[in-house]
Amino acid sequence: MKEIKVEDIESGGRLINFLRKLLPNAADSFIYKMLRKKNIDLNGSRADGKEILKSGDVIKIWFSDDTYNKFAGEYVPDDKSLNKYHISEKELMGLEKRILFENRDLIIINKLPGELSQKDSRDLSSVNEKLIAYMLSKGQITAAQLRRFHPSIINRLDRNTSGIMLFGKTRDGIAETSKLISSREVEKKYLCIVHDEDRTLPDNQKLHIGGSLIKDTRTNLSVWYPDHIKGGLDMSEDVTLLKRNHGLDLLLVEIHTGRSHQIRCSLSSFGFPVLFDPKYGNRSLDMKYYSMTDIRHQLLHSYKLKIDSLNIDVTAEPPAVFDKLMS
Could you read off the pLDDT of 90-117 as tens digits, one per residue? Predict the structure, then answer.
């Protein structure tokens, strides 16, 4: 018999999903059969798999060691399983300095331009892996727990967009914060530098941009439409001019929806392409500023995040290039 106690980081998920990760070699039909026969129980009682787990719940699996090992696989929670989460002491110290907020459920970090939010097909290190490494170093999660639950990024940023990113340390944290984002109870503001050669953005008033976005998955490009159209995703944001300098504007953009490439696509469609944006920018205008910096990626930064219900209000200062170009 195996007895597993549900930890804080694992609470909030369904029992069946927990068992799928615990017993990866077992078919769902087998797991459900074991639940019906009470060969797997929850807190001493029969369960059907739909139960939402809480911290402290006890799952008992009445298998022989051979049967359990057969369905659990040969996973051994040793140091080898943690190799992909290894970062140097220097990297770890740098990561800690960029953490803006942390509690039981969440980490809020200032992502650097060029960092991946999550691993891609090139198997490069990402903020997600770095923060799991951080949790391991602090004893906030173990290798055995990682088998059943992976902490993860909640709001992904494009690789070359910098600034505030949310990371869920627990199932509860991921579920609650995702729900708040979906219900638009999270205030998110971005800074960006755009071209405005004709100085057409209004001073001291908000410009509202609404409409729809459609993304072409083949080209990974979005198209903005001023009205709602079939197949499009509604988008909404408010734009405020903060500063002007020689054909460039520093903008504060408060987004009310979080669509793919929303800010970059909509501002470009309005005639204000983000500086150095390789997808939606204006290369001929960008060339005027190449001599001022060696940066060649969009100047877009997630600047402020506020969640009233969680008493969270954080600010991430933008990279130095913002001040250099606007001063």
Answer: 989 999 999 999 999 999 999 999 999 9
Map the chain to HEC letters.
CEEEECCHHHCCCEHHHHHHHHCCCCCHHHHHHHHHCCCEEECCECCCCCCECCCCCEEEECCCHHHHHHHHCCCCCCHHHHHHHCCCHHHHHHHHHCEEEECCCEEEEEECCCCECCCCCCCCCEHHHHHHHHHHHCCCCCHHHHHHCCCEECCCCCCCCEEEEEEECCHHHHHHHHHHHHCCCCEEEEEEEEECCCCCCCCCCCEEEEEEEEEECCCCEEEEECCCCCCCEEEEEEEEEEEEECCEEEEEEEECCCCCCHHHHHHHHCCCCECCCCCCCCHHHHHHHHHHCCCCCCCEEEEEEEEHHHCEEEECCCCHHHHHHHC
Write down the pTM of the prediction.
0.82
pLDDT, tens digit, for every residue of 182-212?
999 999 999 999 999 888 887 777 899 999 9
